[in-house]
Amino acid sequence: MHYTIAGDIAQYVRLDFEPGEAVWASKGSLMSYTQGVQWQLRLPGGVGGAIRRSLAGEGMAFTHLSTDQPGQHATLVANSPGHITTWDLADGPVLTTRGAFLAAWGDEVDITVTIARRAGAALFGGAGLFLQRISGRGMVLVHGSGDFYERTLADGEEMLVSTGNLAAFADNVDYDIQGVGGCRRILFSGEGFFMTRLRGPGRVLLQSLKRTSGGSSGGDS
């Protein structure tokens, strides 16, 4: 799959298909497509997967695009200001927070919903109890509100992230919470009671604008 990411304020991506190629896209992200592209709504993981995705703040269904004709393309957009970046699954699975998954394609790409490993992170970490996990062999498009800030954490290296600024992270990154401490910090800092604590090794993608509670990558999710 050849792709081109373009735009400044609210980026979009053009996907140029070879015959037989297909892509999974977040519901509501399809902006345009040529006549030879077929698309339909599908439920990866069946009804159970759809219910878990809804609990994760995502749409229950994905848009599945494919074609058997040459010279076909489609454009996808996140319908909100921000940027798009790629995650190569050759580097390992990725966990995306609410609204960060835009699209994925490749061989044996598996899109599931996983539960946050730690109860505190699930309840208070900002990413929620359920996270979307993409694995296999292929490419993932991740959308971040605003601009991306990327870090690759060394083994045992930690960083604290404000709630809502976490977009995506490697599956082997440990995800937990830490109290901000002090009444004045809690009441007047605007950061709430907890920060998200990430421990490496692995890649982390932060977004400079906090995702709002009603936001998602596909406008109809």
- Proportion in helices: under 10%
DSSP strand tally: 17
Mean pLDDT: 83
Uncertain spans, ≥5 residues at pLDDT below 50?
182-190, 213-221
- Radius of gyration based on Cα positions: 17 Å
Which structural class should the secondary elements be placed in? mainly beta
Q: What is the molecular shape? A: globular
Strand content: over 45%
Task: Give me the oligomer status.
Answer: single chain
Total DSSP helices: 3
Structure, described:
With 221 residues, the chain is mainly β. It has three helices and 17 strands. The protein has helices spanning 46-55, 119-124, 183-188; strands at residues 2-6, 12-17, 22-26, 30-33, 38-42, 62-66, 72-77, 82-88, 94-96, 101-115, 130-145, 148-153, 158-161, 166-170, 174-179, 194-199, 202-207. Strands 3, 5, 6, 8, 9, 10, 11, 12, 14 and 17 form a ten-stranded antiparallel sheet that branches. A four-stranded antiparallel sheet has the order 1-2-7-4, with no helix packed on it. Strands 13-16-15 form a three-stranded antiparallel sheet. The two termini are 25 Å apart. The model is unreliable at 182-190 and 213-221 (pLDDT under 50).
